[in-house]
Amino acid sequence: MAAPLAVRGAALALAVLALAHTVWHGVREPGHALAFGALITVGELARWGSLPGEREPAPLGAAGALAYALLGRSGGEATTHGVPQVITVVAAAQLLAAVPHLARGSGPDPDLVARRILAVAFAAACFQPLYATGRSPRWFGEGPCFALFLLVLLGLTALCDAVLGALTTPAPRPFGPLLRDELRALGGIGTAVCATGAVVALGVAVAGLWALPVLCVPLLLTQVSFRRYAGVRATYRQTIASLARSTEIAGYTPHGHARRVARLSTAVGRELGLPGPELTVLEYAALMHDIGQLSLVDPVPCGATATLPAAEQRRIALLGGAVVRRTGVDTAVAVVVEQQADPYREQPLAARIIRVVNAYDDLCGEHAGGALHALEQLRLGTGRDYQPRVVEALAGVLAREAPSPLGTS
Q: Rounded to an integer, what distance in angstroms lies between the CA atom of residue 28 and that of residue 33?
């Protein structure tokens, strides 16, 4: 908790100092400050329809803020707004965009606001002094080398933002895996934001403020389309979760078993470094891993397939894979479901994870010893049934979740 508070405190102190400096020395080029402030505000207002877990809920606002930080000319004329004014405009736009959200009772995430201010401050501090003193034009000129310089600077800014993201993530995980997740996310929307920021800065340098609507409207439309696609993905996941509950409703598995296995499997997958697409397959397969029990005439006692003979476990897994294939879910999910009961040396990593986590949850329900007894049984089975690396990753996840009760909903 100390790291997020430190990041917020640093952003707040920087914004206050920048505001005081801007008020004392006056606003330079107020037209540009107003135009970029309006662009950032409109972009931040796009958070309104954001979905939980979005890496960058306001890409237009982020791109506009970066473009203002990297603005050295406008219509061929040098600009003189400086670092403090960049920070002030970005902070003011964040506050203005927060008003409708606060009126609705859902204010912006303070960690995201702090990250935006600090990342933009880093970009501005690296660019503005070099450009204002004439060093960057002298070193890189105004052609392709200058554009490459902007891209390198944006890459460093993205790295700075990734570090801040890892520091402010509330998940109880080591810093290394969190930073790895943030860096992987840069290949998606992060790259588009950085590229748009550079293009907007270069466009305004040549054409003036008229370049803003021309260059930013396509990004806004892309954001709307992406938001709709994300909504479809969320509905798809809800459908899978509903299918997974069918075994609970039919009385084949305990209440919450599929959700617990999915949550822990995803956490273990992150611990082991699975990338985003593979984590999605892992989550879906974990939610549906017991759906093969619907084909059984007599339910397994307490739904605990981990205590069944190996041949019976494989039969249920194959039945589950057949059911998943008929639902239209990604074939990769069906493959993981089918292979969850195979010898672990023949399984993909996702199937190994589900096998371990499913056995853990089953054993927690079967024995009064709870989590400690379940982990002991899993470790005893690492020679044949469970991969040791997966078992230890699960133990690490559970240790960080303590003192919450393990193996419960």
A: 8
